[in-house]
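Escalated from tier 1: 6-O-phosphono-alpha-D-glucopyranose holo job.
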Amino acid sequence: MGLILVSNRGPVSYRRGDSGELETVRGGGGLVTALLGVAASRPVTWIASAMTPEDTEVWRRAAGGSIALEHDEYRLSLRFINAGAQAYERYYNVIANPLIWFIQHYLWGLAVAPEIGEREISAWDEGYVAVNRLFADAVCRELEDGNGEGGRPLVMLHDYHLYLCPALVRERHPQVFLHQFIHIPWPQPDSWLVLPRRMRQAIMNGALANDIIAFHTGKYVRNFLLSCEELPGVEVDQERGVVMTGGREVWVRAYPVSIDGDDFDRLAGSAAVLEEEGKIKAARRGQLILRVDRMDLSKNIVRGFKAYDIFLEKHPEFRERVTFLALMQPSREDIREYGEYRRRIAEVVEAVNNRHGTADWRPIDLRMQDDFPCSVAAYKQFDALLVNAIFDGMNLIAKEAGLVNTRDGVLILSENTGVHEELGEFALTVNPFDLEDQARAIHQALTMDDDAKRRRAGKIKQVVRKNDINRWIERQFDDIKLKGGGES
Ligand code: G6P
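Tier 2 regenerated the structure:
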């Protein structure tokens, strides 16, 4: 039976090559790899937003229909939806990020923000609702074109951009099996009170149109069930993780996402990574603290540098013997809050480097870049990895870097990351708001004895290799089958 995947960001995007021809660029990250793996064994249609001008060109050429992607390992049919610049801006830059993203990561400082005014209300109606409708229309067209022939059609949706889509599809296709994975935290119910009632209701109504709704951790599952308990006419069985609504059962489940260990091993040994690793080794002076993040407010980048500042102040013996390498990928730059955050990062880095730096030593080496081979090279070389996110759905950096590190590096890990449920035991746990705690953890990581480091690093590798991406996929398909969907 065919499978329909739906996500805002697709598996590939188009750009113009040197010769002027359109070429595909594969989306980075383990999720795309894992889901493309699914496409090796069954026909898959992937529905995603056209995000570049070239995507829009491809969408136009295909007259809104699907595009066949042929590859050695998979065959995929890609269908873009094209919302147009204004609707997309409202959906993505006003509602999904920041409004919903900030709620789910507890990022609003409620004394001053957000303000729900005319801009937000029209962005909801003409952006978020409208784009979700376009996604739902595309899913329905796919279902009506017979993609689901030969069984109960299965649609797997991803993330918070698409909360309304399941209900819109369910209305027209009551029999379809709908599965949605939320990759970010589900906060405690009161956090949602930031939104006007009709928006909150639409989100819950959409989410509960799924057959299974999935998260990375047990905590998000519990929070989601608590949100459901507040709804009229809905029954919640906390123990079984089941919500009864409108005569249907919705399963709420946790499946911690992971990475493909073998794939990462191969990558770590690739020529591109070895070249970057050579540069890092040559520039190295003493120990290396590393962070690798999308430049997002939830990642807590500024506090991380402040903690490092305190560490250098308290432990001057480390001056000139440690470098903090920060690899930051620019992200969501059209959103005001992100632009301001970028400026604050640059300021704090300058302040720390001016305060402690010397003629030939820069305490922080900040690189704003999107260079995966360089990140993997740095993963191999760190002595301490700082993952101090305010809140983070999972944080795959901790898993990726832990797996390929060659120096028994120590993981400093925020207790508010999803990955803390799996790796917290082998990391130095920190409170992301407590600068002193983080400064102390940096010192502890850099002075830990070799045996303790080896033991912890070994355990992290073991856990990541065992709970790998295949397990993540298999567990979801097992549950889908158990609930009566997805038989081939
Ligand atoms: C998070 C979200 C994803 C999103 C990614 C990158 O991991 O869960 O849905 O794709 O961030 O964000 P972007 O806005 O660039 O797609």
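Residues 9, 97, 159, 183-184, 331-332 surround 6-O-phosphono-alpha-D-glucopyranose (CB under 6 Å).
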